[in-house]
UniProtKB/TrEMBL annotation:
InterPro entries the record matches: AlgH-like
Name the UniProt record assigns to this protein: UPF0301 protein RPR59_09695
Similarity comment text for this entry: Belongs to the UPF0301 (AlgH) family.
Pfam families in alphabetical order: DUF179 (PF02622)
């Protein structure tokens, strides 16, 4: 078991009653968390009416062999900025390894590789991210709102977006139907 105060490589699961509708039933893959802040990519919701072929078209990339996969709502920060979470079998110049669990790429070279069939075996595309300033996520973790669990990348490769929240809680041994909508005071 990892013994760190930082959550890189873990999932943040929104608890019922988090108080921010943008994060209702959110599953956020934490890609970076240290003393300077945190960055996570939402993997629990997709953007209606937007697929990978639309994104490839914006970059004038022929979709080739790429499926028209759904695009995920990565978070409210920079909603036009794209990110690809993927298996560790591919790496580009600016690819970041996330705790040995998955990789994060944000350059157009991975989109070309996916279209050509030479990209990673498993991947998902998201627009936007969730970001926290220095100490902000640490402070939020002391209040009702988020539950952290080890980030099993298998969830975002094998479970549809709308089932990831329940699956991540189930993998942690928790039935989310039994969770309270608010925290009490002792």
């Amino acid at each position: 078991m990892e013994n760190t105060k930082y959550l890189t490589g873990q999932f943040l699961l929104a608890l019922p009653g988090i108080g921010d509708p943008r994060f209702d039933r959110a599953v956020i893959a934490v890609c970076s968390h240290d003393e300077d802040g945190a960055l996570g990519i939402g993997v629990g919701d997709t953007i209606d009416g937007l697929g990978l072929h639309d994104v490839l078209d914006q970059f004038e990339i022929d979709p080739g062999v790429a499926p028209d996969a759904p695009i995920h709502f990565g978070g409210p920060v920079e909603p036009r900025r794209g990110f690809i979470l993927h298996s560790p079998d591919w790496g580009g110049q600016d690819t970041i390894d996330v705790a040995g669990r998955w990789r994060l790429s944000a350059t157009v070279d991975i989109l070309r590789a996916i279209a050509e069939g030479s990209g990673p075996e498993h991947w998902l595309v998201a627009l936007g991210y969730a970001g926290w300033g220095a100490g902000q996520l640490d402070e939020e973790m002391t209040r009702h709102g988020w539950f952290s669990t080890p980030g099993d990348a298998d969830i975002f490769y094998r479970v549809k977006a709308n089932g990831r929240w329940e699956r991540a809680f189930a993998d942690a041994g928790i039935d989310p139907r039994l969770l309270a909508n608010s925290a009490g005071n002792a």
